Amino acid sequence: MAKIGKRLKAAYEAIDTKALLEVSEAVAKVKANASAKFDETVEVAISLGVDPRHADQMVRGVVELPHGTGKTVRVAVFAKGDKATEAEQAGADIVGAEDLMKTVQDGTIDFDRCIATPDMMGVVGRLGKILGPRGLMPNPKLGTVTMDVAGAVRAAKAGQVQFRVEKAGIVHAGVGKASFTEEALVDNVKAVFDALNKAKPSGAKGTYFKKASLSSTMGPGVKVNVQSALG
């Protein structure tokens, strides 16, 4: 059995892991126990009453966090001509076409978000087996296959978060850093719940939001009262 360090042991002793907390209380607890030597990421995990093996119960989308993620997002854009210029001017870190495809095929993936113009999907499609498993494949439903590359780049840089339900029916999403104010983290958590609510699939039956928890990178999780996050 793995030995729990003194810092983590103290963090667990400071909270009641079985208590159901209002979202503001949960945020306060997580912030108070984020004692690592770096600025920990705060993440929400939400269990949904869906079975993603069925197409009509898949939950996927994007959410604009009102206070951003606190992370520096590197964005790659597959585009040519004027659209490539637009992407560069909007702040894209990497812009290319066949040359970028070759770079990715050679094993260099130095970006966190991938955007493409529709005419470039023939090129990007060849990278499906590489980008797909990493969650980087451009998708029109997520706004990453678009002619508005400038808008997509700015949204990604501003803190747009993509989410997709896992096989067990759970959605994970980073909602900021431990250094954020409590108010900012609460706003971001509520934005995720709102986006998930709007993305509720037609095939979802019964209770949609089953349970949720909030945690920091190196800290214990605390249970969140779902209703308090939906307000």
TrEMBL record:
Pfam families per record: Ribosomal_L1
Alphabetical UniProt keywords: Repressor, Ribonucleoprotein, Ribosomal protein, RNA-binding, rRNA-binding, Translation regulation, tRNA-binding
Q: What does this protein do?
A: Binds directly to 23S rRNA. The L1 stalk is quite mobile in the ribosome, and is involved in E site tRNA release.
Annotated GO biological process = regulation of translation; translation
Transmembrane parts of this sequence? none
**Identification of the protein by name:** Large ribosomal subunit protein uL1
The entry sums up its family as follows: Belongs to the universal ribosomal protein uL1 family.
Q: Superkingdom of this entry's organism?
A: Bacteria
Question: Which cellular component appears as one GO term in the record?
Answer: cytosolic large ribosomal subunit
**What molecular function terms (GO) are annotated for this protein?**
rRNA binding; structural constituent of ribosome; tRNA binding
User: Which lineage do the record's taxonomy fields give for this organism?
Assistant: Bacteria, Pseudomonadati, Pseudomonadota, Alphaproteobacteria, Rhodospirillales
Q: How does it assemble?
A: Part of the 50S ribosomal subunit.
Q: Which PROSITE patterns match?
A: RIBOSOMAL_L1 (PS01199)
Name the source organism: Roseospirillum parvum
